[in-house]
Design brief:
This protein has two domains: 2-127 and 305-329, 2-Layer Sandwich (Nucleotidyltransferase, domain 5), CATH 3.30.420.40; 136-298, Nucleotidyltransferase, domain 5 (2-Layer Sandwich). It is α/β, with parallel strands linked by helices and 346 residues long. 44% of the residues lie in helices and 17% in strands. The protein is built from 14 helices and ten strands. Bound molecules: adenosine monophosphate and magnesium ion (MG). Residues 9-11, 309-310 line the site of magnesium ion.
Length: 346
């Protein structure tokens, strides 16, 4: 079994994955309430929280699942906040020493890459190796607070980044938009909630730059356009039209993501479409991408809600899914890399 630790940003998480059964335990301590009052993640506070919460989470792991069958430790080694990653790395090394098992560093983005496959594996663990061949090459969209990118996962499990954002990530655009609208943090879920009573065509926001066949994203224009619009409105007007503003803004983000995904899918050769990262919780986005998958006649794999935000389940699963038969019996080392890109070998 693989015991995984995640602490790249503002969630302390532990998970245990059994290749024969799936995830047998997952625990997350979220720091949202702590950072909320600062309007964003404060690195020093996050580091201190990770330090406080790993021990109790590991005690729970030991009590609820046990550690005796753990044969491999996996830990997020980047990208993320350097000091936060270091806490997870130190905890992982200590565990590896105590349990006398190897430790491997896992790229956080690789966790997001594999997260839509966790549910498929759980349906029929013994058949996963064979079935995943039917799903690769895979086109995936990762949308989170720090990243927005399209990638290809090919039949040899190589990852190619097809595009990224030129400025803000989609989640960042939603969080910053929410801030301009005077809402709280994180903004994505609040904008989604307020959108329910609004019209998505009430305001016309830009849908990102570039030609139709260009795959890069851009969200800074959208944010600026909201700022200019709000400067022309009175406080009462903004308050009264909040649902319309939220619905239109959210739709602009969803449209931008959907259009680029469609353009990538239409290049052909993909056998499945995936969606992961915190923004993947958004129901409008999930529905839009599901329609794109239908249109492209490929299965749609969306990460389950508990695997969209930061979690250790996807780190354990990626560690396992990424490894070849040889590596599966010997972890391949640990180096902390705060700015690791997606396509780096680990
Ligand atoms: P992550 O960076 O993966 O931890 O995800 C956090 C980001 O996801 C933040 O930018 C949130 O605003 C965003 N997010 C979370 N839930 C939703 C939602 N339901 N709709 C849109 N964005 C969301
Ligand atoms: Mg997070």
């Amino acid at each position: 079994m693989i015991l995984a630790l995640e602490s790249s940003c503002d969630e302390t998480a532990v998970a245990v994955f059994d290749p024969a059964r799936g995830l047998v335990g997952e625990w997350v301590h979220s720091q949202i309430a702590l950072h909320e009052r600062h309007g964003g993640v404060v690195p020093d506070l996050a580091t201190r929280e990770h330090l406080r919460h790993f021990a109790p989470l590991l005690e729970r792991t030991k009590a609820e699942v046990g550690l005796k069958d753990v044969t491999q430790i996996a830990v997020t080694n980047g990208p993320g906040l350097a000091a936060c990653l270091a806490i997870g790395g130190a905890a992982a090394k200590a565990l590896a020493l105590a349990l006398r098992v190897p430790v491997v560093g896992v790229n956080h983005l690789r966790g997001h890459v594999w997260s839509p496959f966790i549910a498929r594996h759980a349906e029929a663990p013994a058949e996963f190796d064979a079935r995943r061949r039917e799903l690769l090459p895979h086109l995936g969209l990762i949308v989170s607070g720090g990243n927005t990118l399209l990638f290809m996962l090919d039949a040899e499990r190589r990852i190619t980044e097809l595009s990224s954002t030129r400025d803000d990530a989609a989640g960042e655009a939603l969080d910053k938009g929410a801030k301009l609208l005077g809402l709280g943090y994180p903004g994505g879920p609040l904008i989604e909630k307020l959108s329910e009573g609004g019209r998505m065509d009430a305001f016309d926001f830009p849908r990102g730059i570039g030609r139709r066949d260009e795959l890069d994203f851009s969200f800074s224009g959208l944010k600026t356009s909201l700022r200019y619009l709000l400067e022309k409105m009175s406080a009462d007007e903004i308050h009264a039209r909040l649902p319309d503003l939220c619905a239109s803004y959210q739709q602009a983000v969803v449209d931008a993501l959907t259009r680029k995904t469609r353009a990538a899918l239409s290049r052909g050769g993909f056998k499945s479409l995936g969606l992961s990262g915190g923004v993947a919780n958004n129901r409008t986005l999930r529905a839009a991408l599901e329609r794109e998958a239908k249109r492209g006649r490929v299965p749609f794999l969306a990460a389950e809600p508990q695997h969209t935000g930061d979690n250790a389940g996807m780190i354990a699963f990626a560690a396992w899914a990424d490894m070849t038969g040889v590596e599966r019996s010997a972890g391949s080392g640990l180096r902390i890399e705060p700015s690791a890109p997606l396509a780096v070998a680990f």
